Amino acid sequence: MTNILIADDHTIVRLGITIIIRDMLPKVYIRDVDNFDLALKEMAKRHYDLIILDINIPGGDNLQMIDVLRLRQPKIKILIFSAYDEELYALRYLQAGADGYLVKHSSEHEIKTALHQILNNEKYLSSNIRQHLVNGNVKTRPTGNPLLALSNRETEVMQLLIKGSSVADISKTLHLQLSTVSTYKTRIFAKLEVSNIIELADTVRMYSNN
């Protein structure tokens, strides 16, 4: 029996993934939750082979989710399932310890491929990201996309800022000093050449869709 936990705050996403998994695996236990805290509670009650995790889930929303999950269940497989641009986020989450990164507009075939590889102890990267890696185009240093100039921590802070979180909220979420968060915010604004949150959100939207 394979145990799979789906953590996503969109009902239709959880339902769709569940249908695909049941079609793929005849013997499977699936539990779905709509926030990160419930995911942790579920993991305290049952061993899971795989968690399918949205980056933008309530209660989580940062790279530290990977470490938190590993502390609860060190051998659990983690597939990030996100609407965020894979060229910007995939390698960051893989380097943080995830086993795969899949965008939400992926085909059913690609979803099944990712699940099959990860459940068979392989890492999963889309063909697009693999090709960019071969060509040397996926980097965490500045390129034509200024978002790639941000560090992992700056990216986490940026995500929270465009969701409307205050510096104090971010300080609590990421367990950082207020002054440290303010410094990250200043760096982000400087690197992206923006002066307010609206400009920041517009910049992220523009380059994430490229």
Automatic annotation (TrEMBL):
This is Two component transcriptional regulator, LuxR family. Coiled coil: none annotated. The modification 4-aspartylphosphate is found at residue 54. Residues 143-208 form the HTH luxR-type domain. The keyword Transcription applies. The keyword Ubl conjugation does not apply. PANTHER family: RESPONSE REGULATOR UVRY (PTHR43214:SF3), TWO-COMPONENT RESPONSE REGULATOR (PTHR43214). It comes from Chitinophaga costaii. Pfam families: GerE, Response_reg. GO terms for molecular function: DNA binding. InterPro entries: CheY-like_superfamily, NreC/VraR/RcsB-like_REC, Sig_transdc_resp-reg_C-effctor, Sig_transdc_resp-reg_receiver, Tscrpt_reg_LuxR_C, WalR-like. GO terms for biological process: phosphorelay signal transduction system; regulation of DNA-templated transcription. Residues 3-119 form the Response regulatory domain. Keywords: DNA-binding, Phosphoprotein, Transcription, Transcription regulation, Two-component regulatory system.
